[in-house]
Amino acid sequence: MISDRVHAIWCRELQRDDISVDDDFFTLGGQSVIMVGIQGAFMEELGVEVPMDQLFLHPTVASISAYIASQGTVTTR
Description:
By secondary structure, this protein is mostly helical. It is built from 4 helices and no strands.
């Protein structure tokens, strides 16, 4: 499931294990450097390019997962 993979990436990049799917990236302490790491992980691990503006528009695991799913290009590694 995409949201599980996105959640794992967020936990790793934010160095937290207490993130819910509705927690806001910025409230969790997210910043641009971390966002770039997440963007790279999405490309490497999911095979999908997520533009930076979409990361700002979808600041939760649930919302960015829905965006990624709507693109229909996630790899199944």
